[in-house]
Amino acid sequence: VSVLELIAALKESKRKVTAASMEKLTSGVATYRQQKGSPPAGSDIKALADVLHPLYMKDLVMDDAWGRQILVETASPNIRFRSLGADGVRGTADDLLSPE
């Protein structure tokens, strides 16, 4: 296995872990919304995690697989999550976005 293949496999693994984490957050928001009738309050991941964990989300999720906080994007009533990906730069091809 070449070094480039190893790096690519590691990036893909981190992408999958981050996507799964963002799915947990999305599911927690959906459960909260279903039970409360409105989306949870929280403009950043710490505030949102405080509302969701552990009642609406079993696992505490705040960071992506690269160790950076997952960003919360709100456009009422929708909440979407963003990871800046491997490069840590917003708006590049490796960003991961949750569905709205």
Describe it.
It is a single chain. This protein is α+β, with helices and mostly antiparallel strands and 100 residues long. The chain contains 2 helices and 3 strands, in the order ααβββ. Strands 1-2-3 form a 3-stranded antiparallel sheet, with helices on one face. Strand 1 (71-75) and strand 2 form a beta hairpin. It is elongated.
Helix segment tally: 2
- Give the beta-strand count: 3
Shape: elongated
List SSEs in N-to-C order: HHEEE
Blueprint of the fold:
Blueprint: H1 3-36, H2 45-52, E1 71-75, E2 78-83, E3 96-97
Antiparallel strand pairs: 1-2, 2-3
Keywords for this entry:
100 residues, alpha+beta, 3-stranded antiparallel beta sheet, 2 helices, 42% helix, elongated
Entry summary:
Helix content is 42%, strand content 13%.
